[in-house]
Amino acid sequence: MKEILCVLLLLISLTSFSQELQSPDRILTYGFPYDAQRKAIKFVGKKWGIELYTVADCVVSKKLIDSVETIHTKLWKKMDSIHGVDSEKRFRNEVIAEMKKIEEVNKIFERDRNIKKLLRKIERAKRQASPNLEDVSDDGNIYYWTVNSFEINYSSEFKWKPEFMVRINLAERKTEIIEAE
């Protein structure tokens, strides 16, 4: 009987261990974070192997907040074992630095005359443009935007259409417009 119980406990522990290995490391968010902050956490998290995951919008309970804090405590203990002591502080500093870069990239995007011209062309065709910062290169100098559009017809159906992509080289402060396929 003891042998069966030991084998059963071993199987249970191996199952829970294998699930833990497969689950991604996540920073859980709630509320509506500033867009640059959300993107910065996503980009830095990608380098650290951490996924950004939204668990609630603006209405949250004390129980949810406590659960998120518990999960984050476990996450940062694990990150300390991988990246060294004070990994949470280093991560936050990297996020702040990334936010500054994203703000600069936003300014370059918004000031570019060719991008403005293409956005006006979309609006003249009675379409709404929706630019979205999608990704950053591994070296952190090239940022990729996708500009989609949808018809303004005041119905509940939106048909998104990719219009063009923009590659912004932050180091050189240059933009490159790439036609959508």
Helix and strand arrangement:
Elements: H1 2-22, E1 25-30, H2 35-48, E2 50-56, H3 62-83, H4 87-111, H5 113-124, E3 127-136, E4 142-151, E5 161-169, E6 174-179
Parallel strand pairs: 1-2
Antiparallel strand pairs: 3-4, 4-5, 5-6
Describe the sheet with the most strands: 4 strands, antiparallel
Q: How does the helix and strand content classify structurally?
A: alpha+beta
Q: Which stretches are low in confidence, meaning pLDDT under 50 for 5 or more residues running?
A: 1-21
Indicate the percent of residues in helices.
40-55%
Count of folded domains: 2
Mean pLDDT: 84
Q: How many distinct helices?
A: 5
Listing every helix as H and every strand as E from the N terminus to the C terminus, the arrangement reads HEHEHHHEEEE
Number of E-type strands = 6
**Distance linking N and C termini:** 65 Å
Q: Kindly provide the radius of gyration, computed on alpha-carbon positions and rounded to a whole number of angstroms.
A: 22 Å
Give the overall shape.
globular
**Arrangement of strands in the largest sheet:** 3-4-5-6
Q: Strand fraction band?
A: 25-35%
Concise synopsis of the structure shown:
This protein is an alpha+beta fold. It is about 50% helix and about 25% strand. The protein has two domains: about 25-100, no CATH class; about 110-180, no CATH class.
